[in-house]
Amino acid sequence: MKTLLKSVVAAAVLAAPSLALAAAWEIDPAHSGAQFSVKHMMVSNVKGEFGKLAGTFNIDEKDITKSTVDVTIDATTINTRNEQRDNHLRSPDFFDVKNHPNITFKSTKVEKGADGKLKVTGNLTLHGVTKPVVLDVEGPTPEVKSPFGDTRIGASATTTLNRKDFGLNWNKAIETGGVVVGDEVRVSIDLEGVKKAPAAAPAAPVKK
């Protein structure tokens, strides 16, 4: 029995450093955002954002490939600073938010690129369609202690999508050639995470 206990203690000691290097973070929606940019009338770029997102990410500093990201964006909060356009974007012509109120991203692979930055591959579900996409990530930043006592970290991600891959097909032709809305959409996501408290260890059984 003593030998068994020593083995358990030794295993816990050896595992402790790796556990300390893995951290879970809750996305702070007040300091995070998702933005996009798309060509309009072939001459300018219209930019917009989603006002509400939530989720978690886990960072394993010992083995970054074991890190994960899970983000949900509220599609109903789309904002391009034009009420008529925003209502059209919420309609079945585009996001159809009545039937598809959320946009989700769940990572399936995390790796370091040749430039040292992270590449996060995952499944993006938009307008009821799920497709694999790759995010180019800057960060994560070093941890900082806020004046309010919590610990925070940040990261930024970018990617480019073809909206038609997700069934957002609406368009109108222009008399001089071209279309009203471009197919290519540039996306950027800024995340600020608050470190989650580690799960409490199970209580030791009471000896009788």
TrEMBL record:
Superkingdom classification of source: Bacteria
Pfam families found in the cross-reference section: YceI (PF04264)
Presence of the UniProt keyword Ribonucleoprotein in the record: no
UniProt keyword list: Signal
Keyword match Disulfide bond: no
Annotated signal peptide: 1-22
UniProt cross-references to InterPro entries, sorted A to Z: Lipid/polyisoprenoid-bd_YceI, TTHA0802/YceI-like_sf
Family matches, as SMART domains: YceI (SM00867)
Limits of the Lipid/polyisoprenoid-binding YceI-like domain: 24-194
Protein name per Swiss-Prot or TrEMBL: YceI family protein
Source organism of this protein record: Hyalangium rubrum
